[in-house]
Specification:
Elements lengths: L1 E2 L20 H12 L7 E5 L6 E6 L3 H18 L4 H17 L1 H12 L3 H26 L2 E3 L7 E9 L2 E5 L7 H12 L3 E5 L5 H13 L7 E3 L4 H11 L2 E5 L2 H14 L2 E5 L4 E5 L5 H12 L10 E7 L3 H13 L19 H16 L3 E4 L15 E4 L16 E7 L2 H8 L7 E5 L3 H6 L6 E4 L4 H4 L13 E2 L4 H6 L2 E9 L12 H17 L4
Parallel strand pairs: 1-13, 6-7, 6-9, 7-8, 9-10, 11-12, 11-16, 12-15, 14-15, 16-17
Antiparallel strand pairs: 2-3, 4-5, 5-19, 10-18, 13-14
Helix pairs in contact: 1-7, 2-8, 3-5, 4-5, 4-7, 5-6, 10-11
C-alpha cells in the first residue's frame, strides 16, 4: 500500500468563517407547516452537519395524520383539477420569481441542514427555478388533447386526453433536499394532481421553505401536504394512500418501494443510485477534462446520485491528465465557510462519514494507492472528509463497484476503446456517464448503459436541460423526471372514440362469415397504403 502526501483544505491556512445561523422566527414559521397536523408526540431533532448543533425539532406524523393529509389533498385536488392551465402556470412562474428573490435565505437553510458548500446549495436554487419555468411554459403543450388514427378512416374519430392521477406521494432524500422535494411535485400539480410529500426527516426545513413559497405564489395550501417522520413507517403510510409514488434514494430502498407499489397496482418512478463513470479519451482537452473531473467527482462532497466515482483514462494521456487532476484536487478549498469560494462542504452525518472512511480503508488495506486526500478532517467540522483519489483499485475492493456516495473517486487507465464500454457498463447500475473527447465520444456514448450521457461535461449539461428526460437504467431506477416524460407519468391517458355511420359487426342480413371476409379484404387493402 502506498499513500501520496496530499493535504487538502484552505490553501492560505486562514481561519474559516463561522457557518450561517438560521433566523429562529424563520425556523419556527416553517415548523408550523407540519406541527398542527402531527400528533404522535415524537420528534426529530435536526442538527447541522457543520457544527453538530440542533437547529429545529420537527414532530412526526401518525398513520392517521398521513391518512388525513391525503384526505385534505384529495379535496383540494378535485378543485385544482378544474383550474385552467394558464392559472396553474402563473403560480409556477411566481414561484420561480420567489426562488430567485429569496435565494440567499434558501441557500442558508440548505447549507445549515446538509453542510454543503454555498455553490452547491445554489445548484438547487438553479435547478428548481429552471424546472418551475419549464413546466409553467410547456405543460399545456405536453398535456394537450390530441387526435389519434381511428380504426376506419373518416368514420372513427379518436381523441386522447391526459387525466390527473389524483394525489401523488413523493418520498424525497436528504442530499438535495430543496429541489428534490419539489421538482417532481411541480410537474404533478401542473398536471392537475395533489401532492403528499415525505421529505427525509433530517432535512425537513429545506422542503418546508419550498411549500411556504408555493403557497405565497398562489397555490392552495391544502393541495400540497407535508408529513414528517422516519422513512420505514411514514414512507410506508404514504405509499398506502397514494395514487402514484415518486421515490429518490438508494437502490435497496427503491426495491422495497417498488414492491409496495406493486401490491397496490399503482405506478411509481424511482431515481436510485449510481456508480457513474467519467471517461477521458486520448483526444480530450486535458485541462478541461481535469477541471470537469473535479466538478463531477466532488459536488456536495460526492453526495449526488449523478456524480462520478470511476474515472477511466486512455493510457496514452494518463500521466498528463493525472498530473492536472491531482493538482486541482489538492488545491481545493473546503471548510464550513459560507462564502462562494468554498469548493466543498461536509458529509451529512456520522453514518455517511463512517461509510466513506470504511471504503477508503478497505481499499488501502487491499493495496490501493491514495493519490490525494484519504481521510476525515475533523478540524473543519464533525463530518468533513478530504476529496480523495484512489489508484490501483481492484474488483475485490468495496469502492470498485459499490456506490460510496462521498468525495472518493477511483482512477483506471485503459488501453483500447473496444473493452472500454464493457468496463463502463460493468455492475448493475446505469444512471449517468461522462465522456471527454472529440468525435469518437458521440459514437461511444450510444453503447453506454446510462440514462444520461454528458460529453465534455460531468453531469450538468443533461441535468439542467429540463426538456430532456432524466433517470436511470437497470438498477438505477424506473421512469424519468423532466421533459414530457416527467409530467405524463402523473397522468392517465384516456382514449375517447366516436364512431360514425357504420358499426363494428355484421349489418342487417350479413352473416358473420361474410363480415369476416369483408374485414380480411380491408386488412389487405390497408396494408398496401403506405400511411395506413
Amino acid at each position: 500500500m502506498t499513500r501520496a502526501a496530499a493535504a487538502s483544505g484552505p490553501r492560505d491556512g486562514s481561519a474559516a468563517l463561522a457557518p450561517v445561523a438560521l433566523d429562529p422566527p424563520l425556523v419556527a414559521d416553517l415548523v408550523t407547516l407540519v406541527a398542527a397536523t402531527a400528533t404522535s408526540g415524537r420528534r426529530t431533532t435536526i442538527s447541522s452537519p457543520l457544527t453538530g448543533e440542533a437547529i429545529a425539532e420537527v414532530p412526526h406524523a401518525t398513520p392517521q395524520d398521513t391518512e388525513s393529509a391525503f384526505a385534505r389533498a384529495r379535496a383540494a385536488q378535485r378543485r385544482w383539477s378544474r383550474v385552467p392551465m394558464r392559472v396553474r402556470s402563473r403560480v409556477l412562474l411566481r414561484f420561480h420569481d420567489l426562488i430567485v428573490a429569496r435565494q440567499s435565505t434558501i441557500m442558508d437553510v440548505i447549507a445549515a441542514e446538509t453542510g454543503k458548500a454555498r455553490r452547491h446549495a445554489f445548484d438547487e436554487v438553479l435547478h428548481l427555478g429552471l424546472t418551475a419555468r419549464y413546466y409553467a411554459r410547456s405543460a399545456g403543450r405536453h398535456l394537450r388533447s390530441h387526435s389519434a388514427k381511428g380504426a376506419i378512416p373518416g368514420l372513427t374519430r379518436v381523441r386522447v386526453h391526459h387525466l390527473p392521477k389524483g394525489v401523488v406521494g413523493i418520498i424525497s432524500p436528504w442530499n438535495y433536499p430543496f429541489t428534490l422535494a419539489s421538482c417532481d411535485g411541480l410537474a404533478a400539480i401542473m398536471a392537475g394532481n395533489g401532492v403528499v410529500l415525505k421529505p427525509d426527516e433530517h432535512t425537513m426545513l429545506s422542503a418546508l421553505i419550498g411549500k411556504r413559497l408555493l403557497v405565497e405564489a398562489g397555490m392552495p395550501e391544502d393541495l400540497w401536504q407535508i408529513v414528517a417522520g422516519p422513512g420505514p413507517s411514514v414512507g410506508r403510510d404514504v405509499i398506502a394512500h397514494a395514487d402514484y409514488v415518486c421515490f429518490t434514494g438508494s437502490s435497496a430502498t427503491g426495491r422495497i418501494v417498488a414492491r409496495q407499489c406493486a401490491d397496490r397496482l399503482i405506478g411509481c418512478s424511482l431515481e436510485l443510485g449510481g456508480k457513474n463513470a467519467f471517461v477521458v479519451l486520448r483526444d480530450a482537452d486535458l485541462d478541461k477534462a481535469a477541471e470537469g473531473a473535479v466538478r463531477a467527482a466532488f459536488p456536495n462532497a460526492g453526495q449526488l446520485c449523478v456524480s462520478s466515482e470511476r474515472i477511466y483514462i486512455d493510457r496514452a494521456v494518463y500521466g498528463d491528465f493525472m498530473e492536472r487532476f491531482i493538482a486541482r484536487t489538492r488545491a481545493m478549498v473546503f471548510t464550513a465557510d459560507p462564502s462562494w469560494e468554498n469548493a466543498m462542504g461536509s458529509l451529512i452525518s456520522r453514518e455517511q462519514l463512517d461509510k466513506v472512511t470504511a471504503h477508503v480503508e478497505d481499499a488501502v488495506q487491499k493495496g490501493a494507492t491514495v493519490l490525494a486526500g484519504g481521510g476525515p478532517r475533523p478540524e473543519y467540522g464533525p463530518y468533513f472528509f478530504e476529496p480523495t483519489i484512489l489508484a490501483d483499485v481492484t474488483p475485490d475492493m468495496d469502492c470498485h463497484l459499490q456506490e460510496t456516495f462521498g468525495p472518493v473517486v477511483s482512477v483506471y487507465p485503459f488501453d483500447d476503446e473496444n473493452s472500454l464500454q464493457a468496463r463502463v457498463n460493468d455492475g448493475g447500475m446505469g444512471l449517468n456517464a461522462s465522456l471527454f473527447g472529440g468525435r469518437r465520444a458521440s459514437t461511444l456514448a450510444r453503447g453506454l448503459m446510462a440514462g444520461s450521457v454528458n460529453i465534455n461535461e460531468g453531469y450538468a449539461a443533461s441535468f439542467a436541460s429540463i426538456d430532456s428526460p432524466m433517470g436511470g437504467m437497470r438498477q438505477s431506477g424506473l421512469g424519468r423526471r423532466q421533459g414530457k416524460e416527467g409530467i405524463l407519468r402523473f397522468t392517465e391517458p384516456q382514449s375517447v372514440a366516436r364512431q360514425h355511420l357504420v358499426h363494428f359487426g355484421p349489418t342487417d342480413g350479413m352473416t358473420m362469415e361474410s363480415y369476416a371476409r369483408l374485414m380480411t379484404l380491408s386488412l389487405r387493402l390497408m396494408r398496401r397504403l403506405p400511411r395506413s
